[in-house]
Design brief:
Elements lengths: L1 E3 L2 E3 L7 H20 L12
Antiparallel strand pairs: 1-2
Length: about 50
């Protein structure tokens, strides 16, 4: 994970798409409230 001005960049290195999705969803739930002070509601596009 890298923090840039106004941006976090997270990478997943693995072979399983479901594990990658779970990883990024967990990061979202952890970071969104801490960094933005907002509830971590899953973006609609992630459900498509």
């Amino acid at each position: 994970m890298t923090r840039l001005p106004g941006l976090f960049v997270a990478r997943y290195r693995g072979d399983e798409s479901e594990a990658a999705r779970d990883y990024f969803a967990a990061l979202w739930r952890l970071l969104r409230p801490a960094v933005a002070g907002r509830e971590a509601v899953t973006p609609r596009i992630w459900r498509t």
